[in-house]
Amino acid sequence: MNNFERGAGQPEIININAEKKYQSVDGFGFALTGGSAQHLIRMSAPQRKKLLSELFGNGPDQVGISYLRVSIGASDLNEYVFSYDDLKAGETDAELKHFSLSQDEKDVVPVLKEILAISPKIKIMGSPWSAPVWMKSNQNVQGGRLMDKYYSTYANYFMKYIQAMKSHGIVIDAVTIQNEPFNDGNTPSMQFLAKEALLFIRDHLGPSFKRAGIKTKIVLYDHNCDAPEYPISILADREAASYIDGSGFHLYAGQTPAMGKVHDAFPNKNIYFTEMMAVSKDGGFNTAYPVGRILIGALRNWSKNVILWNLAADPKYNPHTDNGGCSICQGAVTIDGDKVQRNLAYYVIAHASKFIPFGSSRIESSLTTKVSNVAFLTPEGKRVLIVSNNSAEPQTIKVIEGGQSFSYTINKSSSTTHIW
To answer: Residue 265: enclosing H or E segment and its boundaries?
Structure first.
């Protein structure tokens, strides 16, 4: 280890034990919303290639994003609402004869293909904001529930999506069955209560995937850290649990220890962090708060990944859907034609994505009172330590592993990543 600048005062001691391992890492990144893809596809080809290389490449000046979340159909950060099987009012299509990926083929698919050319092993998770309107109890893009008679049809809808993406060379590693199942205010949105999700997975989606040989992981919940009983109640059903890989969480409400609660109840099931915003205000770049609360908080509570919301928007936070789309959602990058501005979320994810590759394992690192931290062992045997100082003054840190140590001072409202 190197000796860094030593600060004054009693240091915060972080003890590292690489022998004690926790969860392995799948990756770090953002939601590639339809709006993000729209901005990217409208850039000139040279500037788009330059930006995508910076975001997804693994060179010295590149971020190394390794995980993406895409919407199955439109999210609220699309220009308008669509599904892959839209019909005229009163029509139905139980056999999904009109299923088409044509909307995504305009922007999301070609952008993903360019990303895969840079990062062929990137993980991709798909999440629906709503089923097609004709499958819903209220016949509306906003709210409502999936009608019982369409559970099998909707399971086939997921399969057709996975197969259609695969035909483009895009592998969907995991799906959540509903973005924010308690939220009926987004446009689009759909409620999916725990007892409904259990029946859908156990009796329809899980068996359909198994029969078709689909290896895409099924992830529960995909909502805030204030209702861990939702995934716990479903995982308690052994048959349903046999089809489920794990549970996904957001952080607009609740605290990350809720993720740890689910892990403790079902330690053989994985935990994923699937959405949260980290927003720059007035040009401010206090990385300490989001790195500590989101990144370190999720990883210390067993998450295999961290995905922030969302990759790109324009200077006015467009596009978004009307009457229920997010009008304040800043991208990790702001794209204005060929101009690019890097925002807070970009730097938060870079603290991990650039240094912690797929297959790394979280290792033991002791807690301190004034800073937060999380540590990893990479497949190459390197140690990576992320430290966040959200206090009002600089803090002296001493990192100890075995008989070696280094000390340094971390500025207030800042984060650091160390490798040795």
So the answer is: helix 257-265
329 vs 33: CA distance, rounded Å: 11
Report in angstroms the alpha-carbon separations of 282 from 5, 279, 286: 31, 10, 11
Sheet strands side by side (includes 404-410): 404-410, 395-401, 12-24, 361-365, 372-377, 383-389, 414-419
- Which residue's entry shows tokens 């097609």? 132
pLDDT at 411 (0 to 100): 95
**Which tokens go with 103?**
């909307």
Burial class for 282, CB neighbours closer than 10 Å (0-12, 13-18, 19+): exposed
* Cα 76 from Cα 130, distance rounded (Å): 10
Tell me the two tokens of residue 369: 């009172």
Q: What residue spans in the chain does CATH classification 3.20.20.80 cover?
A: 26-355
What's the CATH code, domain 26-355? 3.20.20.80
Q: What is the pLDDT of residues 132-161, one digit of tens each?
A: 999 999 999 999 999 999 999 999 999 999
Tally the C-alpha atoms within 13 A of residue 86's C-alpha that lie toward its C-beta: 13
Mean pLDDT, each 10-residue run in order, the chain (420 residues) = 51 97 98 98 98 96 97 97 97 98 98 98 98 98 98 98 98 98 97 98 98 98 98 98 98 98 98 95 82 98 98 97 93 97 96 97 97 98 97 96 96 96
Q: Which fold has domain 1-25+357-420?
A: Immunoglobulin-like (2.60.40)
Distance CA 151, CA 94 (A): 10
The DSSP annotation for 380-401 comes to: TS-EEEEEEE-SSS-EEEEEEE
Paired sense of beta strands 12-24 and 395-401, if any: parallel
Which has the closest alpha carbon to 16: 357, 418, 402?
402
Buried b (16+ CB within 10 A) or exposed e, 17-33: ebeeebbebbbbbbbbb
- pTM across the whole model: 0.96
Q: Give the Cα separation of 365 and 400 in Å (integer).
A: 10
Whole-angstrom CA distances from 194 to 23, 41, 115 are 26, 38, 35
